[in-house]
């Protein structure tokens, strides 16, 4: 079904509402993914589903019912589950449903007809561009190419009606030789816009340069972080600190107005930015506003949903996850502003340091201090006298993100879109950081 | 369901599949959360659909759909074959499966009291009593507790004649108390971190956790951690509680023994493994105290079932035998690659996901010591409880874990609470330094409900039996 049809289905569902308020979210999703290993396709899958979520509010109580499958009876089943749920919840200060006025235009949205129409054969052909390049260079390629189309509709008894159809194409690849590997990725709403030859060239080149790595001692190093690595830093800041709920619960590093990071660091959330899978509204149907989170190093703002906005006496910024929830709002279109330095010239300014292609298995160690740990992976190189001289064995880092971003020396003028571990798009530059701590 | 699966298999065969299997799954979930004295959410969800897996032209294809009408199911089967044929254009090596017998049967998780027969009011009441028990201390900024119940009805059939029906019941619950001060945040959890402890059992499993009876103690520990001394630093003896030992097993034995990782199937995402086939049967993974098993027959672990998701019977395999690496977690395809039979570890996150190799119940078998004895025979070290942070490299060698709290041990006695402990090491050296594992009386089965793997991402519920265990000469430090 298209957006209008899902809206009509939601409107019809609301006719079953006898009393109180209701929100109906319907999402039709079609997603396919082709996975490759050792220069062959070893898994290729397709999935089609409709997810219905009903939230009922009545007498200060909220109930939620969710259904996938169950055909024509799905909406009724979701309503019945929500009503059963609502009956047992305690009466509390329930946040009201957003008003129709908090809606708006259902644009811009990331959509490309080519992605929507992509076939298993199309994906196999693109994968073969990478596997062929790898085979020509005597290495093996591994990775996945996915295409997804999702139509989401939100209808509420308060008069809010939103719908949007979005697409996403994502390609990640690892190339492995006898003694080392490389990584590259590309993501776009439009599968036709993926630079697959460029990815193949990048991943094979990194792999070939990363053979026979030798160890370096752990310790503090000057680093150049590629956008793949910077994405992990930004995503962990978002999870731990850019939410109004985290601030309200005293769990966030954010201290409004304080200058915690380098002047070169400006971090935004912008769901309207063309490069970051634009999407017009959040999971309450509220229009998502651009928010400058860190402004030239200063803690500037956090994102809100309706409950946290009510708490602080402000309006929602449109960053809600499905309500009710205990996690709070989340920025899902992060970007760090570009700088002026060409990425290709950043290594030249490092007398001795490390170039990091990507991080792996990054986890919070102390969220309030933004201390995280993780490993480097698939492309860690020693920089000596302004040049990359050799690959080095992967290292574990344990580092405060805020401290690292307080020591940013250069920001590249180029940026690249990467998917974080939470699968949201993050637009990141290369960063030159004065000191980064590697522990083993 | 039988009729539906026959339609799917017939359609796949008619489209040219040389092998096909399908899983019709209906999953019901109840999730109840109480936060700061309010029922924050009661979510009831229903999910059903079919996943069809085929081999055509020597390659795999898979399609899942939530429409169980005949036309939709048959089209999904044909689409799976189209996908396989598209993949076959790129591939040179046809898929080969290890043989497995055709099986027919039924399995149901044994429960004393079906959790879906317990009223929502009783469940909410349990959580409200738990919340109340945490509410006395003003330093506790966030109180959160939850229950989750899962019922999954699975019907499996394949083109080789297997027809298997299973009903799996899970019950879980837990609590978190978060204390804050101007410069510190500390969370304590019970019975485990990351939201809850979950097992394959009925309501009786959750009652046995005794959430209300432990809530006050846990809240007090969270507050005490705000002003506790930093964890001591240096190389010292570490004793892990059973929950942290379970996670250590998960990360450093469960994942590296997954044979798909070893063969490179996960190289672009989850990673590979240091446990390569040339090491099988000879490599010293740990000390003689260390025996680890994969046991999908061991109730009440979350990896307990009758058959895996490609129809191989539940079984027990020894992965580490008195320190020696002896076995993998495998599937029919990966087992064939090393000349073995599958030991039944193919599992999928619902009908919409392709089965891949997952942990079942990966257990550290009990030893002969006890926590009391281990502490009494430790000159200086730390006793670490409940995971807070976990990270390990893509080959599963270099790890760093943090726990919610620690107790310093001096001259055989537990002395003072210490905060923000982390410890790190290399997997074989770490398990090689294990000199004691507690016995059956302190051995417990724990559940991990957030094990991520695969593309598209799949979250699996897996079990780990473990007991407190001791390690010598481990690097320990406080998180700074």
Describe the structure.
The complex is a heterodimer of chains A (440) and B (480). Chain A has 440 residues and is α+β, with helices and mostly antiparallel strands. Chain A folds into two domains: 3-208, PmbA/TldD fold (2-Layer Sandwich), CATH 3.30.2290; 213-438, no CATH class. Helix content of chain A is 22%, strand content 39%. The longest helix of chain A has 17 residues, at 120-136. Chain B has 480 residues and is an alpha+beta fold. Chain B folds into two domains: 2-227, PmbA/TldD fold, CATH 3.30.2290; 230-478, no CATH class. In chain B, strands 1, 2, 3, 4, 5, 6, 7 and 8 form an eight-stranded mixed β-sheet that branches. In chain B, strand 22 and strand 23 (458-466) form a beta hairpin. In chain B, helix 1 packs parallel to helix 2 and helix 3 runs parallel beside helix 5. The longest helix of chain B has 19 residues, at 70-88. Classes of the chains: A alpha+beta (440), B alpha+beta (480). At the A-B interface, strand 1, strand 2, strand 3, helix 2 and helix 4 of A face strand 1, strand 2, strand 3, helix 2 and helix 3 of B.
Features of the shown structure:
heterodimer; A: 440 residues; alpha+beta; PmbA/TldD fold; 2 domains; eleven-stranded mixed β-sheet; 17 strands; 22% helix; 39% strand; globular; B: 480 residues; 10 helices; 24 strands
Rg over CA atoms of chain A: 23 Å
Global Rg of chain B:
23 Å
Envelope shape of chain B: globular
State the secondary-structure class of chain B.
alpha+beta
Count the strands of chain B? 24
Strand portion of chain A:
35-45%
Q: Tell me the fraction of residues in β-strands of chain B, as a range.
A: 35-45%
What string, H for helix and E for strand, traces the elements of chain A in order? HEEEHHHEEEHEHHEEEHEEEEEHEE
Q: Termini of chain B, distance in Å?
A: 56 Å
Strand count, sense and barrel status of the largest sheet of chain B are: 8 strands, mixed
Give me the secondary-structure category of chain A: alpha+beta
DSSP summary: helix tally of chain A? 9
Low-pLDDT segments, ≥5 res of chain A: none
Largest interface: A-B, 85 and 82 residues
Assembly state of the chains shown: heterodimer
Overall geometry of chain A comes to: globular
Domains of chain A, number? 2
Count of separate DSSP helical elements of chain B: 10
The percent range for helix content of chain B is 10-25%
Q: How many structural domains of chain B?
A: 2
